[in-house]
Design brief:
With 118 residues, the chain is α+β, with helices and mostly antiparallel strands. It has 2 helices and 7 strands, in the order ααβββββββ.
Length: 118
């Protein structure tokens, strides 16, 4: 189990800020950040999937009816890659499930030194 890195945290923060119209939902989901860890970072041909798991002892109720994907109008730009990436945050049964990070190119190595979300 790994902690969220700065990219993953920035994506989650951006998605939740972009969906502020769902304010109550966003506030409830922020509680989860202390309890989620990265289970797996898996490269695909056009990006990466970041799958989450929870530490065992979290002490809040989960709304199991939350099954959705959220995104924002922003993109990620890595310092060492020309193409932009879009992203989506997926929830299953009220829990953070994964981030999908996608570009239209198929030669990203998954490595980067820095990034910006804009």
């Amino acid at each position: 189990m790994n902690y969220l890195n700065s990219l993953e945290f920035a994506i989650i923060q951006d998605v939740l800020k972009s969906n502020i119209l769902k304010k109550t939902l966003t506030q409830d989901l922020l509680k989860h950040l202390l309890y989620i860890r990265v289970k797996e970072r898996k490269l695909s041909q056009v990006g990466m999937y970041i799958h989450f798991e929870y530490i065992k002892n979290f002490n809040f109720e989960i709304d199991k009816n939350i099954n959705l994907s959220l995104s924002s109008d922003n993109t990620v730009k890595f310092n060492n890659f020309d193409d932009l990436f879009s992203f989506e945050l997926n929830f299953n049964n009220g829990l953070f499930n994964y981030i999908e990070l996608v570009t239209y190119s198929n030669n990203w190595s998954g490595k980067y030194d820095s990034f910006i979300i804009k």
